[in-house]
Amino acid sequence: MLQDIINEIMTRALLPEPVTQWSELKGGTMSMLGVLGTPEVSKRYVVKINPRELVRNETRFLNLYDGIDLLPSVRYVDPEFRYFVYDFIPGDTRYEHGAKTPLMQKLTRQVISRYVRPESGDHFKHVESRASMEESISYASSVIGANLPPEDHELVAYIMQIHAEVIANEDKYILHGDFGAHNFLFTEGKLSGVIDPIPAIGRKRYDLLYAFCSSPDELTMPALIQTVSELETVEEIDRKVLIGDMLLALYSRLSTCLKYHPKDLIAYLQAWSYWTLHWKNS
Asked: 3-state class of 50 per DSSP?
C-alpha cells in the first residue's frame, strides 16, 4: 500500500517540489510512514498513511496551528483522507534527563500558549470529561494494581470525582493529545519538533502535565510551579487543585511506565510518594 501511495505522489507531482526517491520509516500501530526526497536532500517530506478519521483529525490540528515552528507543515492531504504529506523535521526522540525546565518553558511558550478554543465542527475526544477520566483511571488502576497500596487507588478515585466538577467549568482548547517526550524531536539536545498529535479537547493544563510527567526527571513542586507559571498567574494557582491534577497525570503515567518503560518505575514511584505527601500536607 505504501508503495502505491508513493507512486501516486510522484507520478501526479502532488508536492511543491519534485521527489525522486523514498524509504520506509517505522510507523505506529496503525500508521505507515515513508520519507521522500531527492539525491541531494534525501529527507524532505514524510507521507503518513492512517485510517481516514485519524488523517482527518491530525491534518485539522496541524493546519489549525500552522505557523508554530515546532509543528510540521502539511503539504498535501489526500481528498479521501487515505494519507497526507508533511515537511520532514530532523531530530530524534532521545530526551536528555535533567533539561526539563527549559524544555517545558519552550513547549509552553511556543505550543501550549497558542492553543485555541474548539469550533462547533470539532468533534475530538473530550479527554477531561467525567466519562473519559473514569475510563482512564479504571484502565490505569488495572495496570498499576499492587504496585500501589489500595488507599492510593482510592485517593485517585476521590480526586477524580471532585476535579471532574471543577474541570467542567474551565475553558477548553484543542490539544495535541499525545504531548509526551516520545513525540518530541531533539537535535543536539535541543527541542526541534513535535509530531504525531492525537487531537483532543481539554484544558491547556492537561497537555502541560502530560508533557511534564512523560519523563521521570525533575518531577518536583518548584519545577512544576515554574512551568505552570508560563500559563497562569502564580498568585492565582490553587495549590491543592494543582497537586490533585498532578497526581491524576502521574497515575496515568505510572500505567504507561509499567507497560512500556518498566525501567523507569522506581523513579516514578519515588515521584508518586513525593506528590502524595504534598497532597496530605496541602
From this structure: coil
CATH architecture of 2-87: 2-Layer Sandwich (3.30)
Strands (E), the chain: 21-25, 32-37, 45-49, 74-77, 83-87, 125-126, 173-175, 184-187, 190-194, 200-202
Grid coordinates representing 222 are 518548584
Do 175 and 61 meet the contact criterion of CB atoms below 8 Å apart? no
HSE toward the beta carbon, residue 260, CA cutoff 13 A: 8
CATH of domain 100-281: 3.90.1200.10
* Mean pLDDT split into 10-residue runs, the chain, 282 residues: 94 93 85 94 95 97 97 98 97 92 97 97 95 98 98 98 95 98 96 98 98 98 97 94 98 98 98 98 94
**Residues 197, 199, 200, 203, CA torsion sign:** positive
Q: Identify the sign of the CA torsion 193, 261, 30, 129.
A: negative
